[in-house]
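Sequence only, no structure available. Ideas?
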Amino acid sequence: MRSSRLLASVLLIPLLTGCFASGGDTGSSGDAKDGSRLRVALAFPPAENLSPYGADATILSRLGVTEGLTALDANGAAAPALAASWQRKDNRTWLFTLREATFQDGTDVTAQAVAASLTEATEAEPEPAALSGISLTAKAEGRSAVRITTGEPDPVLPLRLASPSLAVLSAKAYEEKDRVDLVGTATGPFELTKVTGSSSATLDRHDDYWGGRAQASGIDAKFIADGTARTAALRTGDIDIAEAVPVAQAASLDEDTRRETATTRTTSLLLNSRSGVFKDAKLRAAARAAVDTSALADGVYEGHADAGVGIYGPAVTWAEGKRQQPVGRARAAQPDGTSITLATYDNRPELPEVAQVLKQQLEKAGFKVTLEVREYSRIESDALAGKFDAFVLARNSLVDTGDPVAVLASDFTCDGGYNLALLCDKDVDRAVTRAEATSDTAERQDAVMAAEARILGTDAVVPLVHQRVITGVGADVRGALLDPYERTLVGTGTRR
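Reply:
I predicted one. Tokens follow.
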């Protein structure tokens, strides 16, 4: 497979300094009478040069740049996007009928373009998390239909295709080898026009968007990892929307600018089960037993979170009634001063405090703990390489596909592409495979919870809290898109 194609940063302007412009036209094609520009502060700078295939794909989705054949509706079901409808032809084949739409470069969204774009995603390395454990082939049928065939039966393919990492791009995006160019090649209501390193991005309105012309003329986005700085910028009127307001800063916002959304995001302690101290299941059990999740929910999150009960929390409404007891847990051993390195990142401002409380709890249990905190883009590769004994991660359990099996396959199987626990357990893999193969919705949910029980039984993951995300939205902003899957933030109706 080819090496991962990455978006080259487009350094067309000097590095932006200071605050955003206060409003009006900032050099885009849209002028003030066509709608003011939105000023948005995001928590996570691009970690992969805005590759459309990894974690950065969600940034592009939240800014209204990219979209796929399908989307998720409010209930987590597959809804039409670039595909107006679809039909399952047999257990491995689906036919998607396209709506009339235009890429941001002016070319038509055709079946051939869609098939080529999905083929590029299947050949990316590392593979998109949404494709973990499956293979698919996309072929054009005429101008407006795409036939997608999977290697094995995939009953949730329409959900899978809603993943931000399977966005559809025009042929222009792939003209250069080993690089995907997102500038003007997507289909969303906002077109990426400038990227300034990991500091900022500029987007203009895509006037020919199939879903209707956006009310805002564009977006000026800044990547501000410091949550206090994001919140302060909202208070002073320098930005219109602030992502992921820290719990400690929530009270500093007026009530009409503070929005709390229950999400499918769970903060967990992941233990390196492949090497080092926590290769020993008995020491993993000791670490799990040391954790007091209620202290984290009530203390660190000040009641803006629920104590961890599993990989799936209260926002996944069907999970609680189907939850099973963990299977096969080892008996805890005494740590006896065993040294471990615990790491996390500071883009989500509660995580360093969570890690500090965990450090105290683990030390009380007998571990000797060294804490390491970095910005996410500077720590992800080391975490995936197993350079830490333990890692605190906030992860949306339904972000990759909307299908609850996907996070299990990508995060906890031997071949998973985002397996920070480095778990490789044959019983877990078998349980996840069974869940993947189950078509009936209720039976699939049962299989998912059986797999969760197997995973929790390894003690490679300790669910800590289930989060409610706080977003700062200016008092004069209307139409911000806040959803439990954290895939959207601005859309055609977002304005000020």
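Residues 1-33 have pLDDT under 50 and may be disordered.
Hope that gets you unstuck.
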